């Protein structure tokens, strides 16, 4: 998005397409001022512009580059406050190195916190991934901050808040005439209440989490009474519809609670204002408002800086917002020839703050753990059974067999659910697993399994199994077999980590049928059936059959809203991370020969249908099983388009 200049009149109209400069001194008024709010979100330990999985530089990520945007934005406006919206301490191998190898104790400062401390943040909030390593670790990380954090909807077991629900920041701000005024900036924070499901092992009996909108209604009146301006740090995404109790993505509904002047959203790893949220009632994706409240979502991994400019006027003894502009400034541009061009340099002070831990993490992830005879890639994982998913399922099954036997459940059929975590999408055309034959290092295992999930086993029926797969099949757009138009196969709004492949059964997916479930996991087409020929050991799966399914704590606890996985069906809670299970499997095997068992496939569509898939340029080195793939050229954002025809 391009840079924006401001005029007072345009700001009073609340526009983001502003052309004239801010008023000159001759027009200055002591009753007007401009306040700039800056925000980062979902940094996930990305300080350096570096991809630890591929062990190479990556100019699309890194707080070090975002820091240069911060410096430029501050230089443009004298009244500026910087906020963070959570998901700081987990998300890449640097985060895992800190948690599992080096550790973090009292008095030690986490590298991402050290980098942030150099930038002068005013306040932050918690993201759901802050809880992945446990409360003690989180406490040590927060203790290293030189700025406060707030969270209004997480309580300790005794009912006291884990963090202050809100904070009032007194600031000396300058009006247009250069005179100083003391304003009170109120800040309130929120996190998805699903943390209780996703990190149950760490949080059960220790914390409770309440609904975001309910917490806002409880705390905002008092905060508003103490503040001139109120900012909501909402580590939650933007979704349409009425407010529902315990909603994961509630930023839009939060905007309806009186008393908020600006919202920083996050969690979804998307950009707002922008096309990602066009067409949702209550959302103005161009002006950047949620029910009229200015808001931003600044991408992820440091890809953007969120900017909210507020025009303030003194009225009745206080300061009121009379106009606004919103913007998400990127740290890079993708050129027509697929080159990534940074828009700003990396900040050396930010790099220096985390350099020692960065170098140590590189040594950690380069440690060898085994060998692979074949490549492990995910370029075609959304259309055919895939080795990057198969190796996870193989490892989970290997690990769980003894657990189930020791728990007296060894006679039940054992299945495994796994998903392709790196499959392009919002991560871009390079966001795919791509491990070459030869030695395997820890970084390669982390490339296959990104998240610090812990292994869970659920007990479900054959009916729940079928519905689980129907929910997973929502990844695909419906293909009209009679249409001659180009039809993209994949719904880009559906996260690839929700495309569960379940091993141990065989099935086909008919994409000419509507999806039975919508994007939020609600039953949308009761008469639709995409899952065909579901069988176990060659026999049709019966509705009342009982199965054990190895999965992760996110899915088993309700993540993604999958039938049969709401926390109530968990029968085994393993102490180990799924990623460590994969690592131990590889160490035990010494040399692996990954290959998919092709237990699932897409049912054929007419040869006349122009079905297309966008995948990474690296896919050209591999053939998609079961398909003829005809390259159609590149997309503007660097993917390669293919027309898919069934090989048979």
Please provide a written account of the structure.
The chain is α/β, with parallel strands linked by helices and 648 residues long. It has 2 domains: 324 residues, Purple Acid Phosphatase, chain A, domain 2, CATH 3.60.21; 280 residues, 5'-nucleotidase,  domain 2, CATH 3.90.780.10. The protein contains 15 helices and 38 strands. Strands 8, 9, 11, 12, 13, 14, 15 and 16 form an 8-stranded mixed beta sheet that branches. Strands 6-5-4-1-17-18 form a 6-stranded mixed beta sheet. A 5-stranded mixed beta sheet has the order 28-23-32-26-33. The two termini are 45 Å apart. The N terminus is likely disordered.
Provide keyphrases for this structure.
648 residues; alpha/beta; Purple Acid Phosphatase, chain A, domain 2; 5'-nucleotidase,  domain 2; 2 domains; 8-stranded mixed sheet; 6-stranded mixed sheet; 15 helices; 22% helix; globular; disordered N terminus; metal-binding; multifunctional enzyme; 2',3'-cyclic-nucleotide 2'-phosphodiesterase activity; nucleotide-binding; nucleotide binding
């Amino acid at each position: 998005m391009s840079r924006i200049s401001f005029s007072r009149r345009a700001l009073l109209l609340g526009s983001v397409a502003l052309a004239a400069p801010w008023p000159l001194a001759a027009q200055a008024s002591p009753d007007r001022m401009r306040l700039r709010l800056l925000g980062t979100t979902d940094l996930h330990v990305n300080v350096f512009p570096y991809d630890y999985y591929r062990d190479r530089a990556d100019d699309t990520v890194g707080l070090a580059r975002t820091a240069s945007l911060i410096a430029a934005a501050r230089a443009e406006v004298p009244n500026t406050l910087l906020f963070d919206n959570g998901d700081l301490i987990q998300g890449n191998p640097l985060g895992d190195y800190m948690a599992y190898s080096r550790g973090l104790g009292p008095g030690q400062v986490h590298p991402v916190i050290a980098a942030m401390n150099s930038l002068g943040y005013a306040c932050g909030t918690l993201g759901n991934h802050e809880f992945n390593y446990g409360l003690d670790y989180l406490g040590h990380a927060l203790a290293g901050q030189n700025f406060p954090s707030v969270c209004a909807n997480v309580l300790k077991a005794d009912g006291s808040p884990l963090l202050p629900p809100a904070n009032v920041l007194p600031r000396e701000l300058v009006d247009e005439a250069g005179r100083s005024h003391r304003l009170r900036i109120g800040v309130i924070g929120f996190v998805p209440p699903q943390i209780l499901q996703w990190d149950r092992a760490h949080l059960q009996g220790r914390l409770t989490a309440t609904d975001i909108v309910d917490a806002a209604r409880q705390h905002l009146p008092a905060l508003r009474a103490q503040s001139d301006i109120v900012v909501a740090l909402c580590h939650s995404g933007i979704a349409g519809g009425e407010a529902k109790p315990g909603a994961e993505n509630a930023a839009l509904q939060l905007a309806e609670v009186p008393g908020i002047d600006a919202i920083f959203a996050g969690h979804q790893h998307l950009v707002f204002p922008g096309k990602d949220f066009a067409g949702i009632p209550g959302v103005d994706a161009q002006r950047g408002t949620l029910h009229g409240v200015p808001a931003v979502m600044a991408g992820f991994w440091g890809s953007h800086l969120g900017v909210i400019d507020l025009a303030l006027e003194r009225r009745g003894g206080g300061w009121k917002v009379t106009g606004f502009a919103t913007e998400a400034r990127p740290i890079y541009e993708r050129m027509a020839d697929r080159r990534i061009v940074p828009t700003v340099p990396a900040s050396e002070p930010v790099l220096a703050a985390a350099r020692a831990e960065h170098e140590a993490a590189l040594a950690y992830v380069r440690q060898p753990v085994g060998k692979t005879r074949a490549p492990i890639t995910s370029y075609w994982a959304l259309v055919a059974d895939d080795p990057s998913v198969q190796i996870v399922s193989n490892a989970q099954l290997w690990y769980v067999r003894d657990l189930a036997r020791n728990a007296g459940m060894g006679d039940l059929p054992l299945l495994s659910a796994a998903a392709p975590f790196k499959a392009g999408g919002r991560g871009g055309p390079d966001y795919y697993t791509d491990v070459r034959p030869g030695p395997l290092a820890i970084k390669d295992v982390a490339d296959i399994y990104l998240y610090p999930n812990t292994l869970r086993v659920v007990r479900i029926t054959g009916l729940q199994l079928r519905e689980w797969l129907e929910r997973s099949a929502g990844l695909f757009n419906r293909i009209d077999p009679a249409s001659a138009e180009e039809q993209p196969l994949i719904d880009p709004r559906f996260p690839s980590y929700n495309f569960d492949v379940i091993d141990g059964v065989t099935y086909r997916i008919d994409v000419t049928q509507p999806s039975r479930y919508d994007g939020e996991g609600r039953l949308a087409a009761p008469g639709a059936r995409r899952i065909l020929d579901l069988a176990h050991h060659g026999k049709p799966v019966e509705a009342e059959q009982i199965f054990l399914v190895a999965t992760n704590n996110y899915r088993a606890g309700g993540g993604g809203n999958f039938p049969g996985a709401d926390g109530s069906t968990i029968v085994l809670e393993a102490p180990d991370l799924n990623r460590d299970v994969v690592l131990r499997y590889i160490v035990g095997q010494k040399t692996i020969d990954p290959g998919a068992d092709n237990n699932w496939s897409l049912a054929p569509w007419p040869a006349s249908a122009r079905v297309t898939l966008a995948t990474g340029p690296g896919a050209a080195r591999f053939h998609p099983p079961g398909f003829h793939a005809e390259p159609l050229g590149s997309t503007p954002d660097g993917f390669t388009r293919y027309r898919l025809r069934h090989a048979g």
